[in-house]
Amino acid sequence: MVRTRFAPSPTGFLHVGGLRSAVYPYALAKHSGGQFILRIEDTDQKRQVKGAVASLQQTLKVFGLDWDELHIQSQRVKQGVYQKTADLLVASGHAYLDEGAVRIKIPAGEEVSYHDFVLDKDISWKTDILTDMVLLKSDGFPTYHLAVVVDDHAMGITHVLRGHDWLPSTPIHLLLYQFLGYDRPEIGHLTDIMDPASGKLSKRKGSASVNELLANGYLPEAILNFVILLGWAPKDNRELFTLSEFIEHIDPAGFQKSNPVLNKAKLDWFNGHYIRQKSDTELLQLIKPYLPEVTLPIIPLIKDRITTLADATSLASFFFIRPIPSYPTDKSYLVTTLEALSTVSWSKAAIEAALSNLCAARGFPRGDFFMSLRLAICGSKITPPLTESMLILGKDETLARIKL
Ligand code: GLU
């Protein structure tokens, strides 16, 4: 049975790279009916951020990444699991005490290697370049190196997938597997995600914070689809993947060897796509947090015109807030429109006929004329279709806005 894990340290909130480190192992496990484990690596107590664990769990749920088991390393510390393993290493001569801390004893003149199943190559290190890292601190807490090996073994992890940052730690882990006589899981390191402007993405870069993207009106489906393709590609050039479709299609051969660039325009494209997949009633609920007054008839007018849910605010607020009047160059446009519309019945056909007739009768240039009207009624040059907007506003409100 394939068992994978996502092992975040609660030192910050989920970022795009972290979400990828969760969704790839999740899909890999579920592809073959396996299990996905969430392991909170909170042994570095000083670096913890308050609320990070709860936020991580909540964010994973938003994306449908449910875990089969949850383990919290600080609780395992209390059970003595790391201490016991450190003692074993000391007893077998592979580790020693240094002022209360336990350090690995790196053997001289050896080589360690493994086959990386993501990068699809053998990687090796001479042990002479390694140093005797601390495995267990004097306060009894393990370092990452000891905890990750003990836990991947104890939890029966078959495939370790993690960010490229962790590659330099791998030789230490390989030695520990060897010293402890553990079977080694498959290990794979994902490529770094690059920021188009400034090199490697990091947790600190707000633009890649998942919660921020959600708050800015990106749909989970879009963020997930975007992240799926940041380091993995199918054999064909297919781009649209829901989580269950990704589970079906994931194949380690599709892991990319070159660093993907975070292309925000692509995320926008996915978001627009998934917004347009929603029914009007679904979208109504999704837009409400951004524009509480929004009503169902407005949705079809803006659905094709928004990239994020938050765009609804700029595009549709005019329905609820009368715009500050901006006066057209030719005042006769609005004066005559007011006259023409005051007698029409308030239907799309009647309004359009009245406005067209007016333009023709007066010889108004249509572009100018309709732009003036749009500005008076909606307060902006970029708006939903004008007549439909007028119908929603109603006759009284529309005429009040045209009145100079
Ligand atoms: N706790 C590490 C992190 O925060 C996990 C690294 C690993 O997956 O082995 O990314």
UniProtKB/TrEMBL annotation:
Segments carrying motif 'KMSKS' region: 200-204
Single GO molecular function: tRNA binding
Pfam families reported in the protein's UniProt record: Anticodon_2, tRNA-synt_1c
Residue ranges of the motif 'HIGH' region: 8-18
Domain Glutamyl/glutaminyl-tRNA synthetase class Ib catalytic positions: 1-99, 101-269
Positions of ATP binding: K203
Keywords, sorted A to Z: Aminoacyl-tRNA synthetase, ATP-binding, Cytoplasm, Ligase, Nucleotide-binding, Protein biosynthesis
Record GO cellular component, one term: cytoplasm
Alphabetical list of PROSITE patterns matching this protein: AA_TRNA_LIGASE_I (PS00178)
Cellular location(s): Cytoplasm
Ranges annotated as spanning the membrane: none
Sequence similarity: Belongs to the class-I aminoacyl-tRNA synthetase family. Glutamate--tRNA ligase type 1 subfamily.
Protein name stated in the entry: Glutamate--tRNA ligase
Source species: Candidatus Amesbacteria bacterium GW2011_GWA1_47_20
Lineage: Bacteria, Candidatus Amesiibacteriota
Gene from which the chain derives: gltX
